[in-house]
Amino acid sequence: MIKVRDIAKSYGEKKVVDDVSLSIEKGKITSLIGPNGAGKSTVISMVTRLLDKDSGEVLIEGDNIFTQPNNALAKRISILKQTNHLELKITVRELVSFGRYPYSKGRLKDEDHRIIDEAIEYMELGELEDRYIDELSGGQRQRAYIAMTIVQDTEYIFLDEPLNNLDMKHSVQIMQILRRLVREKGKTIIIVIHDINFASCYSDNIIALKNGRVAVSGTKHEVIKKNILEEIYEMEINIQCIFGHNICIYFDDQAGDVTEDDAQEYAQTVAHEQLRA
Amino acid sequence: MIGKLFRLDVLIVLLLLLSVLSMFVGVVELHPRDIFSLSEDQQSILLNSRLPRTVSIIIAGASLAVCGLIMQQLTRNKFVSPTTAGTMDWAQLGILIGLVFFPGVSMLGRLAFASILAVAGTLLFMQIINRIKFKDIIFVPLIGLMLGGVVSSISTFIALRTNMLQAISGWMHGSFSTLVAGKYEILYISIPLFILALLYANQFTVAGMGEDFSKNLGLNYQKVLYIGLFITAVITALVVVSVGMLPFLGLIVPNVVSVFRGDHLRSTIFLTAVLGAVFVMICDVIGRVVIYPYEISVGLTIAIIGGFVFLFLIFRRAGANA
């Protein structure tokens, strides 16, 4: 379990993160949601010691993260930030191998190669392993990065907006992979995510931030509620249960208005298509 | 075609052939077939001039190319090199300061001055590019070139005031013609630095992926960055002190290697070193024969040939993107 107590961060006068406390349950997917500028990425950067905090503490199984040796910590938590590294020509296999760095310092042993092979297999990257990462599609590249964290073999995996720039198919694919990692390898995953429906369908727990503070935190059923989300996002949000998932419908009502003409036109099109078939 | 031939063994054979050629090209005629019946004069030329020259070319070419490679990796910018970061100009200013304040300072003394200013100048460059928000791939080396230009004009000013203009023009255009036995040995210092760079090759590659990426893997990013900059600055100072400026070598060679072999230092560092030596060797031999029996300085031939290679690279990349 990771416990975060009263961490804060200011840039100049502006408090970006204001005494945030939260806890991350083991073996679960926890989503961090909230409007732009809520401080999600700053929180995740401080919890993973990429960014120095002004105050507060982060405990991983009771150990203070900021007093742990960097290398020991690299075997317990991994963080993928949203950078694509397109300026360097690195092959998929080389990228995945970086994940062994905390263990091998770059001098890979047979054991390391075996673990790398397994991760490449697990992420179905076999055919791509010798391709350069700048030649891959967004979804393939994201899979390569996840393979790297598998190789890093940490209990906790943090992902900062892993679905950025991915289409629906690849977003679903990545979320299914994350669920599989929790189910089959017992990982604990924390993601920053914008799409509340993805958060609702694929995570166990949700923490919502607003203006640098925790607005609400709990299981997804506790957080995905009309009054809670409307207050966080300051817009009208309706929630429908579809196939057992709570789906948020948040388009403004203008777009939802269907005129009489539209309906007729649609009916005609359907009739035509049925005739043709 | 070129890609297939672009292998370490092929390049090493090429380097050996060129080295033999370099040993037998010069004003005093020597033929490989006479190797066992050399006169005393010829022996002396071979051992005291040709051999030191050939060894210097290999060491300087290889280590400067590797410097460029490490700098490009650490700054994550393909256009940063000892020339475009201004490191060479700082080294030159260092030598000049050494000469002005301690006339008759030894070669090692000059190296010390050149190294100190080269390290300081490179650190300053890194500080500046860390501060600017607009990290355009072209903008960063332009800052380095401008900084180098300012430093270089300070050197010229000091040289004018102290009647040293003649002396610094020697370092402006690198040349191997003065590197005879007794003067070239200082270049051997770059061998332990090169070995240090090899030991850190994996760390440099990880650091090249960025600070957050490095921290995530438990790498001490700042330390690796400083070690890399120290190695490159000292090697650059070493080459400037002994050979003089070899412009754009550290820019062209690593970029050619990157096109064919990617950017993992483990697989490119030796290739870069050997290709750097081959490239300088070709340029030096051409410089020696083109207006025989006189010589064109190698700095000039490198600039000309390197310019064409660089244009080829740019157009090739543009073609690939189109």
TrEMBL record, chain A:
Domain ABC transporter: 2-236
GO cellular component: plasma membrane
Localization annotation: Cell membrane
GO molecular function (one): ATP binding
Membrane topology: Peripheral membrane protein
Origin: domain of life: Bacteria
InterPro entries: AAA+_ATPase, ABC_transporter-like_ATP-bd, P-loop_NTPase, Siderophore_ABC-ATPase
Main localisation: membrane
Gene3D superfamilies: P-loop containing nucleotide triphosphate hydrolases
GO biological process: iron ion transport
Sorted UniProt keywords: ATP-binding, Cell membrane, Ion transport, Iron, Iron transport, Membrane, Nucleotide-binding, Transport
PANTHER family in UniProt: IRON(3+)-HYDROXAMATE IMPORT ATP-BINDING PROTEIN FHUC, PETROBACTIN IMPORT ATP-BINDING PROTEIN YCLP
UniProt-recorded name of the protein: Iron ABC transporter ATP-binding protein
From TrEMBL, chain B:
Membrane-topology descriptor: Multi-pass membrane protein
Transmembrane segments: 54-71, 83-102, 108-126, 138-158, 186-204, 224-257, 269-290, 296-315
Pfam entry (one): FecCD
GO BP field: siderophore-iron import into cell
Subcellular location: Cell membrane
Keywords: Cell membrane, Ion transport, Iron, Iron transport, Membrane, Transmembrane, Transmembrane helix, Transport
UniProt cross-references to InterPro entries, sorted A to Z: ABC_BtuC-like, ABC_transptr_permease_BtuC
CDD domains linked: TM_ABC_iron-siderophores_like (cd06550)
GO cellular component, one term: plasma membrane
Domain of life: Bacteria
A single MF term (Gene Ontology): transmembrane transporter activity
Family of the protein in this entry: Belongs to the binding-protein-dependent transport system permease family. FecCD subfamily.
Name of this protein: Iron ABC transporter permease
